[in-house]
Structure formats: structure tokens, C-alpha cells
Amino acid sequence: MKWLEKNNFGKHQLSILKDIFEEKKHSPHDLGYWIDYVFKFGTEHLNAHYTQEVPALVRFDFDLYLFVFSVIALLLYIWIKVTLWLLRKCCCRSSNKSVNADKAKKD
């Protein structure tokens, strides 16, 4: 740490981190602490820079929404097909019997 300070390597960042570390010794449970903290240090060190490199589709969870929508659509499609099959099975059976009975009476 002393070598970094002596060679002026990131002296500004190092001094900010040192101040932040010393500031953590105080109680962070009141709003005044956080207001002073933001005015004193800013919020740049709190930002997650890796999120800016993530594609927008992943960052806004569009891939997750597409997957969930696809699963729901598939389940809905299967449910409709099964329901229509059951309706045809129940309704068409009685109509086929009456059609067959009418044909038998005509003959």
C-alpha cells in the first residue's frame, strides 16, 4: 500500500477508498449518514460496470420472458387440443349414433 502511495499509482482512488473504509466505522443506520456519504464520495464506486457490457435482451430479462411465454403458450395449446379432443369424443359419439340409427331406419 505504501509503495502505491509513494509511486503515485492511483493516489486519488486510493485516498477515496481509504476515506470510505474509515467512514464505514460510523453507524450506517440513519438517513443523514447516507446523504453525507453520497455528497462526500459520490456513487461511482457503487455502480456495477459489468452490467453495461451485458446485451439489452439479457439485461432486461427478455430472454426469460420469452421462455416463460413460450412455456405458457405450449401448455395452453396442449390444453386446448385435449379439450377439443374430449369434446369431439363426447359430442360426436352421440351424433354418430343418431346418424347411424337414422340410416338404419331408412334402410
Q: How would you describe this structure to a colleague?
A:
With 107 residues, the protein is mainly α. It folds into two domains: 1-47, no CATH class; 56-107. The protein contains five helices and no strands. The mean pLDDT is 76.
Please summarize what this structure is.
The chain is an all-alpha fold and 107 residues long.
Task: Output the helix-strand order.
Answer: HHHHH
Distance between the ends: 106 Å
What's the pLDDT, averaged over the residues?
A: 76
Indicate the overall shape: rod-shaped
Provide the domain count.
Answer: 2
Oligomeric assembly: single chain
The total strand number stands at: 0
For the sheet with most strands, the description reads:
none
- Could you tell me the strand content as a percent range? under 5%
SS content category: mainly alpha
Global Rg: 35 Å
Q: Give the fraction of residues assigned to helices.
A: over 70%
Helix segment tally: 5
Sequence stretches where pLDDT stays below 50 over 5 or more residues: none
